[in-house]
Amino acid sequence: MSPEAGAFALAARAADELRARSGVERYDVAVVLGSGWREGAVALGVPTSIVATGELSGFVAPTVAGHDGAILSLEVAGRHVALVAGRVHLYEGHDAARVVHPVRTVVAAGARVVVLTNAAGGIDPALTPGSVVVVRDHLNLTGTSPLEGEAPPAPYAARFVDLTDLYSARLRALVREVAPTLAEGVYAGLRGPHYETPAEIEALRRSGADLVGMSTVLEAIAARHLGAEVLALSLVSNPAAGVAAAPLDHREVLATGQHAARSLGELLARLVPRL
Q1: What pLDDT shows up at residue 259?
Q2: Per-residue DSSP letters for 60-76?
Q3: pTM, whole model, 2 decimals?
């Protein structure tokens, strides 16, 4: 499924289905919940509806522990918020258009602000597990883009989207107001599913990356192409390969998220009402 008319039409159809099932005519904010973040998102309140993504056109079931397929609707400070649980990844065998389909759907359902959360390895030794980093830029090393293939049809913007302000300076300033101690960093997005080698991490460090992960970059591009403002928040789940002596394990990612759930929830509860 390339970003031709079919991909955008499919997202529009899924958005109509989401509105019908959730009872929300138009969302204001969407938050994509990465590993560990769903536990924290309970701090935002009780959902008014939970729609299984299997009920929506174009969605596929996640295969990764910690990712359940659902879109939760909440009202937070007068804003209609969609929590997207159930991210899928390139390494599960999907192409870029399938990976960004949930983001395209919630933007088609009205969301003008998209918050992308993830768990990431810390390349900078100062970024300790359990800390949150605000993404200020990224390196897309996935070898693909949600905008490759046929040009997006009218009335969508051209595929040559400007990514200079991909991670919104305005939104990052809001984060500094509610959580002034959070660091900012550059996120390197790779395909996975294997973790990187120490040599690869050293190359990423020399390229300016502070964090490394297997998501986010394609979703950010797709959301920006559709005119949404993008904010990305990374939970440092572990030191990247070679930064510490311990071997890497996905169970560590999940455990760090569980331990950090309260602080992640407090951050989201302070931030989302201001978006």
Answers
A1: 61
A2: ----STT---EEEEEEE
A3: 0.93
